[in-house]
Write a structure and sequence with these properties.
The chain is of the alpha/beta class. The chain folds into 4 domains: 162 residues, MoaB/Mog-like domain (Molybdenum Cofactor Biosythetic Enzyme, Chain A, 3-Layer(aba) Sandwich), CATH 3.40.980; 58 residues, Alpha-Beta Complex (Molybdopterin biosynthesis moea protein, domain 2); 80 residues, Molybdopterin biosynthesis moeA protein, domain 3 (Beta Complex), CATH 2.170.190; 73 residues, Beta-clip (Beta Barrel). The protein has 8 helices and 26 strands. The chain has a 6-stranded mixed β-sheet. The protein has a 6-stranded mixed β-sheet with strand order 16-13-17-21-20-18, with helices on both faces. Strands 22-24-23-25-26 form a 5-stranded mixed beta barrel. Strand 8 and strand 9 form a beta hairpin. It starts with 6 loop residues before the first helix and ends with a strand.
């Protein structure tokens, strides 16, 4: 029997043909979750001048040590004192206000005593000054290409004085669910039918990864019907076609033949993974093909492990294929693993010394969504890993 492709090797092959799709301009207010297509250069220096970090009085430290100072004016945010500080002078100043030329210290207002326009101090002044360019200087690359724009990045881009940014084009993902047993949520299923859910979960994962999703619906286990669905995906100009179910070897698993009849170039269709052994990867012209298993948990896990990195890569993320797992300790004994990488649904908790503890759910059947919804991570067991004891180190992949 042919040796199954490992998960790392499969991911490498999925990402091998994935390059950034293109770029477009997006207003900053609409760029959340988008990926920068080019380095973002600061158009100004921040802060543009030295400013006070505290409310108090701007002065020269040596002058205050020599005796009382005369208060000669005020500097507020957006309104500077407008003159150089002279010997024996102090200026009332507020947080964010420009520091007058010549001042080198700020006396905190709680340490100040003012009487008849004369300033004395109950404690020495401190620097409390944010120098010009403390955050960044004009011309500096403050955000690099490939960065995903979250709230902090958007705030930084705004302060850099960018109203719009060049971002990678969103990948368009078409989803086809297949199976005579499937009906949409809200429908009345027959005795042998179930509610379709994989499309919703996979669409959510794809959208969270920055994609635009077109859910094409449910298609019967029929070659002509499945080919019609594939044709709709091509008409939608999908960059990625995700199929759900029909990826195995049963008499009713017809997606692989349907894709082949449409001209798919098959890369692989079985990997050493649990859940998720029957995974199709190929290409149909410029469209990336990912055929996910029909079992809900297998579909979900494969979307996290393969679809999300693929979508990141198509947006130019340089870390799309990076290992996203982290260290924890096992919350229970773990049996020896067999020849496939196992992703076990697990609850997370905090143990002694603040260490992260991952405890596998008691049931790991790939059809059980309750266990998935009650989990916060996947505990990863490598192929042929020996038995591990409670408290041993392990690796986890956090769930969204």
């Amino acid at each position: 029997m042919d040796k199954l492709l490992t998960v790392p090797d499969a991911l490498t092959r999925v990402l091998a043909g994935a390059s950034r799709l293109g770029e477009e301009s997006a207003p900053l207010a609409q760029a959340r979750g988008r990926t920068l297509a080019a380095d973002l250069v600061a158009r100004r220096t921040q802060p543009p001048v030295a400013v006070s970090a505290m409310d108090g009085f701007a002065l020269r430290a040596a002058d205050l040590a020599a005796g009382p100072l005369r208060i000669v004016g005020e500097s507020a945010a957006g309104h500077s004192y407008g003159a150089a500080l002279r010997a024996g002078e102090a200026v009332r100043i507020f947080t964010g206000a420009p520091v007058p030329q010549g001042a080198n210290a700020i006396l905190l207002q709680e340490d100040a005593r003012v009487a008849d326009g004369v300033l004395t101090a109950s404690a020495p002044p401190g620097p409390h000054i944010r120098e010009a360019g403390l955050d960044f200087r004009q011309g500096a690359v403050a955000l690099a290409a490939g960065v995903r724009l979250g709230p902090a990045e958007l705030a930084l881009a705004a302060v850099m004085n960018h109203a719009s940014v060049q971002v990678a084009r969103r990948p368009r993902v078409a989803i086809i669910a297949s199976g005579d047993e499937l009906v949409p949520p809200g429908a009345e299923p027959g005795p042998a039918q179930i509610i379709s859910c994989n499309n919703l979960a996979v669409a959510a994962i794809a959208e969270e990864a920055g994609a635009e999703v077109v859910d094409l619906g449910i298609f019967r286990d029929d070659l002509a019907e499945l080919e019609r669905g594939i044709g709709l995906a091509r008409e939608a100009r999908a960059d990625v076609l995700v199929t759900l179910g029909g990826a195995s070897v049963g008499d009713h698993d017809l997606l692989r033949p349907a894709l082949a009849r449409q001209g798919m170039s098959l890369d692989f269709w079985k990997i050493a993974m649990r859940p998720g052994k029957p995974l199709i990867h190929g290409a149909l012209g410029e469209t990336h093909i990912l055929g996910l298993p029909g079992n809900p948990v297998a579909s979900f896990v494969c979307a996290l492990v393969f679809l999300e990195p693929l979508l990141r890569a198509l947006q130019g993320d340089p870390d799309a294929g990076a290992d996203r797992s982290e260290t924890a300790i096992a919350g229970s004994d773990l049996p020896a693993n067999k020849g496939r990488r196992d992703y076990m649904r697990a609850r997370l908790s905090t143990g002694e010394n603040g260490r992260l503890v991952a405890t596998p759910q008691p049931l790991q059947d790939s059809s059980l969504l309750t266990e998935l919804a009650q989990s916060q991570a996947l505990l990863i067991r490598e192929p042929d890993a020996p038995a591990a004891a409670k408290g041993d180190p392990c690796r986890i992949l956090r769930l969204p």
